[in-house]
Design goal:
Elements: H1 3-9, H2 22-26, E1 29-30, H3 31-42, E2 46-49, H4 56-60, E3 70-73, H5 77-90, E4 101-106, H6 107-124, E5 128-134, H7 150-154, E6 160-163, H8 170-182, E7 188-194, E8 201-202, H9 221-233, E9 237-241, H10 243-248, H11 251-261, E10 265-267, E11 283-286, H12 291-299, E12 309-313, E13 337-341, H13 362-374, H14 381-407, H15 416-426, E14 430-437, H16 442-448, E15 457-458, H17 468-479, E16 489-497, H18 498-501, H19 507-513, E17 518-524, H20 529-542, H21 563-569, E18 573-577, H22 583-595, E19 600-605
Parallel strand pairs: 2-3, 2-4, 4-5, 5-7, 6-7, 9-10, 9-12, 10-11, 12-13, 14-15, 14-16, 16-17, 17-19, 18-19
Antiparallel strand pairs: 1-8
């Protein structure tokens, strides 16, 4: 359907409505073309997938010029789905509306292959439309080749999953699917479509239009006042910022509140956005991944004072741990008064009682809470000033700790902090779009790089490995050619550990085929380092020792791997860095290659040594001393997906 035909069918507001002839009202179209009408309306310009016979009619639609959609083939369904995730996080319409990622899967094996990143999309609340080519409808009762109940396979990781029962349902199903995916809280939806419906005519009275639910709604004023009252009365508050803050783009609003109440700001573990950056006041990074350390950073200010109130703002991932012991107390200590704010009712008070629970748009609500706090009769400005002075001193200490780490020269490899520090300097004239899956080095990447928006940093709350390299394809596709208000060029950087990179090296086939400008930064410590840290957690938690040397966590030795050579096999250039002396030169050359519109790989041999945890106490009797190592630096157990 052309834009001119669509204009004829629209009724101008205020004009008299008229009955349409049934043929015109039903707007019969091929099932495949109905799908593309909706995708165009949504602002989609890329369809990711792995070609399969059932999907050929759909893929063929990308060769129709008026559809204005490019097909991006990938070599594995989990790559295609991850690419759609990255695309959805960064693609916007001209008016700023979110554009969903769209992926085409191939019957049962395709859904099975994509489950890992479908799970990631669900946990990270990424709006996706997953289209799956089902077998011919007349065969389904006969248990055909590759056929199964696809809805049952996908539904637990989607907001809505449905199998279309005829071509006339396609339009209604597309309308509902897009509406559901983009309504808060956003997330993936799934449509199984028997392939013959794609080449049969169906009715679509909606003509590709779908309902966008306005997501910005105001919280109840009385509940905001209750939240402000509790925060104003608090003597030692603490804030946890979750992905709801990043999605709302509410950095400054949260900083204003943190300063108004004198509170440190932690972020939820495995954040999929950068929910509160280190360059803002009182940032303390992601919560640790061990039960007792979570309890300590939230429940205790120092050796002499306990915290009394926790403000849980946009808090989604509330239990990102490997081990939980009921006998050691709840993650949020019971003495804390809990105040929530979210636009998702499921997340408010999900695991714990909230004394105040406003539901509404976070960016709209935060300034109202801050204003009410400052005018509260119990508000103590002098006390808050003293708290802010203490926190500012801690801010300076944390920045100094990073600078110290960035100067360290380990016996083997490059210190991750030094790598990040040099990278930040090389990228000083760029707007960074980092997709992070360097699980052992997350703290350094979050603290050492300068980000200008919550989507400048992308990761996965789900923790299923093999996300970031696929996502880089979609991010690069979404931001290619985009400019920044300050004139800085956006650059896509994928930081990925060697273990994670080995999941989907064939991502580079698509990157090379479409010349997608991505800097692939492989932090190679030649082991599953994050799992080795996890092994130490098991040792300390259960006084348990492995039966052998745990060589299954090593990636060194046989076979010897060169990521630069592996990338070359896919047509992507790269360079190996073995010494810190070469970092700046190699990274500068790599950025030049990416700025020229090419993918480029930099493999950096990083420090393989594990942090010294011998003095860290993770038992129920551990106190704040457990958060400092022998050198006085913070020792936080945060070991990422395990």
């Amino acid at each position: 359907m052309t834009e001119e035909e669509n204009e004829v069918t629209e009724t101008e507001h205020g004009q008299s409505a008229q009955w349409l002839p049934i043929e015109q009202e039903n707007n019969p179209r091929l099932g495949r073309d109905i799908i593309f009408d909706y995708l165009r309306t949504a602002g989609v310009d890329r369809l990711y997938g792995v070609p399969g016979t059932n999907e050929i009619p759909l893929i063929d639609g990308t060769d129709v010029p008026e559809n204005r959609i490019e097909y991006v083939p990938c070599l594995h369904e989990n790559i295609a789905l991850g690419a759609a995730m990255g695309y959805a996080r960064h693609r916007r319409t001209g008016s700023g509306e979110v554009v969903p990622g769209v992926v085409g899967l191939h019957v049962t094996p395709g859904v099975g292959h994509a489950i890992g990143n479908l799970f990631n999309a669900s946990r990270s609340h990424v709006p996706l439309l997953v289209l799956c080519g089902q077998q011919h409808s007349n065969l389904l009762i006969q248990e055909p080749l590759l056929g199964s109940d696809l809805v049952q396979v996908a539904q637990q990781y989607t907001k809505w999953a449905y199998e279309v029962r005829g071509p006339d349902e396609i339009g209604m199903a597309m309308q509902r699917a897009l509406k559901t995916a983009l309504a808060p809280p956003m997330g993936p939806v799934f449509l199984s479509i028997p392939w013959e419906f794609l080449v049969q005519p169906g009715a679509d009275p909606q003509r590709g239009r779908f309902t966008r639910i306005a997501g910005e709604f105001q919280a109840q004023p009385s509940e905001l006042d209750k939240a402000a009252d509790l925060l104003a009365r608090s003597r030692y508050p603490v804030i946890v910022a979750g992905d709801g803050v990043g999605e709302a783009g509410a950095w400054r609003e949260l900083q204003d509140l943190a300063t108004a109440i004198g509170a440190p700001v932690y972020t939820e573990q495995l954040s999929s956005y950068l929910n509160y950056p280190y360059h803002l006041a009182h940032a303390r990074g992601e919560l640790p991944s061990v039960q007792q350390q979570v309890r300590q950073v939230l429940g205790r200010k120092d050796e002499e004072a306990v915290r009394d109130t926790v403000f849980l703002c946009g808090f989604n991932a509330q239990a990102q741990l490997v081990i939980y012991n009921w006998d050691e107390g709840p993650l949020i200590p019971a003495h804390l008064t809990q105040v929530y704010l979210h636009n998702d009712p499921w997340q408010i008070g999900k695991n714990h009682y909230g004394a105040a629970a406003p539901l509404g748009d976070i960016r709209d609500a935060l300034p109202k809470i801050t204003a009410a706090v400052k005018t509260h009769p119990r508000y103590d400005q002098g006390h808050v000033d003293r708290l802010n002075e203490e926190l500012a001193q801690e801010d300076r200490e944390l920045a100094g700790e990073f600078r110290q780490r960035a100067k360290e020269v380990p016996e083997r490899g490059v210190a991750p902090a030094m790598l990040v520090d040099v990278l930040n300097g090389v990228l000083s004239n760029h707007s960074i779009r980092l997709i992070n899956e360097a699980c052992s080095d997350t703290l350094d990447f979050q603290q050492g790089l300068r980000f200008d928006s919550p989507t400048g940093y992308t990761s996965s709350e789900g923790g299923s490995l093999g996300y970031s390299m696929p996502a880089s394809l979609g991010v690069a596709g979404a931001v290619r050619g985009a400019g920044e208000p300050a004139g800085e060029r956006p650059i896509v950087v994928n930081a990925v550990g060697d273990g994670s990179a080995l999941f989907y090296l064939n991502t580079w086939w698509t990157a090379a085929k479409f010349q997608l400008p991505v800097l692939y930064l492989i932090t190679n410590n030649k082991q599953y380092k994050t799992l080795r840290v996890g092994l130490d957690v098991l040792r300390k938690s259960y006084a348990w020792e492995p039966s052998g040397p745990a060589e299954y966590l090593e990636l060194d030795g046989n076979p010897q791997l060169s990521f630069v050579e592996l990338a070359a096999g896919f047509g992507v250039d790269g360079c190996l860095v073995e010494s810190a002396d070469d970092l700046e030169e190699v990274l500068t050359r790599a950025v030049q290659e990416v700025d020229a519109g090419k993918p480029y790989v930099v493999e950096v041999l990083t420090d393989p040594d594990l942090p010294d945890m011998t003095e860290v106490d993770i038992s129920a009797t551990g106190r704040t001393g457990a958060l400092r190592g022998d050198a006085g630096q913070r020792v936080i157990w945060n070991f990422g997906p395990a």
